[in-house]
């Protein structure tokens, strides 16, 4: 059974940076694309960034140039480096495979961007 544990969220001022981490319980990076998703209050969960097995990445338009997804296969960890944060980035951030499996969702990590 695959499990993901997200961490690294917090309260940050606009313009600040955070690095999120997601540790997977199993060695899945060679089998699946990995992604970060986010869910803002009252809104649906949306895809933010994807990284596939060859290392190529994709981003939703609103985070291009500000967020970077990466992974460490040895540590079974996926990262999301976020910079130039804005209030609209406030959400709970989750990792999952891409496309996501319902039974793989973890608790997520809260990111709040506010002055």
What would you say this structure looks like, in words?
The chain is mainly beta. The protein is 0% helix and 49% strand. The protein has no helices and ten strands. The protein has a six-stranded mixed beta sheet with strand order 2-10-9-4-5-6, with no helix packed on it. It is globular and about 40 Å long. The mean pLDDT is 95.
What are the salient characteristics of this protein?
115 residues; mainly beta; 6-stranded mixed β-sheet; 4-stranded antiparallel β-sheet
How many helices in DSSP terms? 0
Give the helix/strand class. mainly beta
Query: The biggest beta sheet, please?
Result: 6 strands, mixed
Q: State the assembly state of the protein chains.
A: single chain
The share of residues in helices is under 10%
Strand content: over 45%
Q: Report low-confidence residues grouped into runs of 5 or more.
A: none
Concise overview:
By secondary structure, this protein is an all-beta fold. It contains no helices and ten strands.
């Amino acid at each position: 059974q695959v499990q993901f544990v997200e961490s690294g969220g917090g309260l940050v001022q606009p313009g600040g940076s955070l690095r999120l981490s997601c540790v997977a319980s199993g060695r899945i990076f060679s089998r699946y694309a990995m992604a970060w998703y986010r869910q803002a209050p009252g809104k649906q969960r949306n895809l933010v960034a994807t990284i596939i097995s060859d290392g190529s990445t994709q981003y939703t338009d609103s985070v291009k140039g500000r967020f970077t997804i990466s992974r460490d296969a040895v540590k079974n960890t996926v990262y999301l480096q976020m910079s130039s944060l804005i209030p609209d980035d406030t959400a709970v951030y989750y990792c999952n495979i891409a496309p996501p499996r319902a039974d793989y969702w973890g608790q997520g990590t809260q990111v709040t961007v506010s002055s």
